[in-house]
Amino acid sequence: MSTATKPNHIGRKISRIRELKDMKQEALAQALGTNQQAVSIMENSETIEEEKLIEVARALGVSVEAIKNFSEEGVFNYFNSFSDNSINQGPIGNQNICNFNPLDKLIEAYEENTKLYERLVQAEKDKVEYLEKILKDK
């Protein structure tokens, strides 16, 4: 008895696409308007009705053809077709080009944080002033 999955097992293909998209069964179930158990049953089914397959494809953000033609080997071939230019080609293929000064971004974040802190302190002062006014009026 073979443990390999059948190449046309639509439920398994859906399961792998969902996993590659880092989506849990619960999230897919919510997108389909059903429960996690129904998604589990669907992923264990070898065939799925065309209408349901269209709904699943829409929920996963892929086409029906992508589900039907999905293969693990195709995914690996796709990612292996990329080369790491920074290692293979040196500075010519370097893709890590910074278009801004990171220190400028750090200073901007610090200034924004300071402004937010000052607004928070002012809001607290206003609240204390308001409460003192209420106490004084009593």
Report the radius of gyration as a whole number of Å: 27 Å
CATH homology-level superfamily of the largest domain = lambda repressor-like DNA-binding domains
**Percentage of helical residues?**
55-70%
Average predicted local confidence, pLDDT: 82
CATH fold-level topology of the largest domain? 434 Repressor (Amino-terminal Domain)
Oligomer: single chain
How would you characterize this protein structure?
The protein is 67% helix and 0% strand. It is elongated. It is mostly helical and 138 residues long. The model has no long low-confidence stretch (mean pLDDT 82). The longest helix has 36 residues, at 102-137.
Give the key terms:
mainly alpha; 8 helices; 67% helix; coiled coil
What's the structural blueprint in terms of helices and strands?
Layout: H1 10-20, H2 25-32, H3 36-43, H4 50-60, H5 64-68, H6 72-80, H7 85-88, H8 102-137
Characterize this entry briefly:
The protein is mainly α and 138 residues long. Helix content is 67%, strand content 0%.
